[in-house]
Please model this.
Amino acid sequence: MNRLFLFFLVIAVLLSNISLIMAEEQKKVIELEPISITATKTEKSAALAPASVSVIEKEDLLRKNYVNLNEVLESIPGVYSYEGKGIATPWPVVNLRGFHGHMRTLIMVNGQPISPSLYSLALVHWTAIPVDVVERIEVVRGPFSAVYGGDAVGGVVNIITKCPDKLEVTAKTGYGENQTYKVHLSGANRLNDNLNIFFAFDKKKTNNYVTDYYVVKPAKPPTDPSTATAVTGARKVRQYESTDYAYEVGHKGECHWDENTFTLNLGWDISDSSYLKLNLLFSEYEVEPFKSASYLRDKNGKEVRSGLVSFEENGSPVYLDLKSGSYLNFNGAKGTGIYSAEYAYKFTPDLDLKLSLGLTDYNYEKVIYPSSTATENGGPGSFSESPSKIWQGEVQTNYRVLTNVLLTGGINYRHDEGDFKKYAAENWRYLDSITTMTETISPESKRYGFYLQGDINLFEKVDLYLASRYDKWSSEAIRKTAKEKTHLKAHDQDAFSPKLAVVYQALQDTTLKLSAGKAFRVPNFFELYQPLTMANTTYLPNPDLDPEITWSWELGVEQHIFSNQTIMNLTYFENYSTDYIDSRTWQDSANNKFAQRDNFGETETRGVEFELSQKLTDYLRGFLNYTYMDAEITENKQYPKIVGKSPRYVPDQMFNAGLDFHLSPFSASLNTRYVSRIYGNNEHTTKNWNVYGAMDKVNFVTDIKLGVDFLKNYNASVSVTNIFDEEYYQYSKAPGRTIFGMLATKF
Model:
């Protein structure tokens, strides 16, 4: 790693001198820098913000056929996003700088947190936010608990939705493979010269493709071989966690996905010194599997799905014990509301106040898993429902005490609550077929935060940022079963999070950034209180968990050349985490899998992010970026065998490159992506790759989109995803080549 840091320093020095070499050839700056409000909670040029900032504008969202919003983030350095099931992935995951899961990255919509603290994996409902209602996305990498409190460990993603100040009417419709179609309708206007209004309806629907398979290990020979049904059709396959072979006997079918989203945004300029913003978004989806299939046939050619079966292989009998329910996927539905309000008043040019309120309402979240005896047409199942809410309020003030000193301070309150209910279900096909309640857990937590940030212009080209925040929180839960009621409480905790950053504009087109800070993550309800059995693993909670603590620092350089036609960024960073929360997995004598949550030890991550954007001509632009991360578990006294291994879901290399072409009336984009293979657990138990269950490398998967404008207000486009039809797995089978056509009009 010393060589890695030395390499970074050499490149940084070279970049800092390029502008001197090219000074005579530069022209006037002709492109404006993107503005970020997320890095400091005040408007700041992304190039001069005290962090690594990426801003994705609405124009960038048109260059590729993005189906789900998390796909947009895949091209940003330091960001790893995976879905596994294409458009019908209920809970895609986004990781920043090697920190797995959004519980370590703060995800917001218009400043309102949307990461739930309840449910099995506490995953963000990314599909609820249509790409076509987004104005811009700001991604700030690095520790930001000093400004935002808990969970902003890997960074912050803030999704800001549209509210145009002019008359606009937009309609889009598209259709593609797997009976996939999208519809977007929206309108906007400015009324009475002071009220902006935007409303939209979005629909996504698909039958998707086969993503999951039934793979079964050989069973012990029965005492009486005649009790087994002779079959044909089993496919011998490798297992991702074993050197032994198993048999693929069928698949879990396609997946019907139907989602509708409604958006309403209002912006009221009350006076020259005040405004009010209201943002409302509600989305609901249903997901239902169908057309599952068994490959096995008996001597009469009839499909076989259950019981003990046998077949000959190399002259020896092989026995398999089949469960009909293992051919089936889950059935579910979810409704999500994201509501926020912001009022601002400017008392003087040097003093302003901002009040914000928000609610993320996971109004309902219902899932039924079929039992082992269930069939394609119905049968018993296990039903869970997990509604939850995130209430947040904040008061923020900005005060320029001197011409070179801007203070930003505030008070923040957050209240999380929810219910996790488990029932028996008569028919897994119907979400309203619940019968007996087996367990209910009702958790809630309260967080209080106080922060202060100073933006100090020390010298003409040097800005110093000092920030700190104090957070205090408590949580408790009530668990009910048919026999007892238990009160659970985690101990009250607090955290102090400082951050320091220096931004030095060494030359007109060269900026150096150095920052260091502390971040923390609050254990969520699932980890503290909620036992859950999912995918043959029982997750055990731990109410005595401590918060994760991470110290990070980074050094970066940004170089602009040829009047912003070439922009290069290079950043080196290090993260040191203690009391890292994760699972230790094991099996009992009956081969039942368990995962115990614990503060299992310490981790370290060192990495480099390199980014290049090049305007080749007036109509052609290219980009590329590369991320290298060396992540390691450095201590775990309870489970020392994982020391020296990388934490789960952390790729060590990521690469993106693309070309964007626009010469009226034609447009085109070409993008390719590489992600190194990763491990799905800390034990690194993967033995085989390119098989069901493995997290394979994404080997330069390439997408293309072609578009043409016609009749002044119309656009037609066709996109091909995974154009070379690369086959790989992200546990489930990843999408192959898919074609999608879109027709759009805007007035």
Notes: Helices lie at 2-21, 145-148, 525-529.
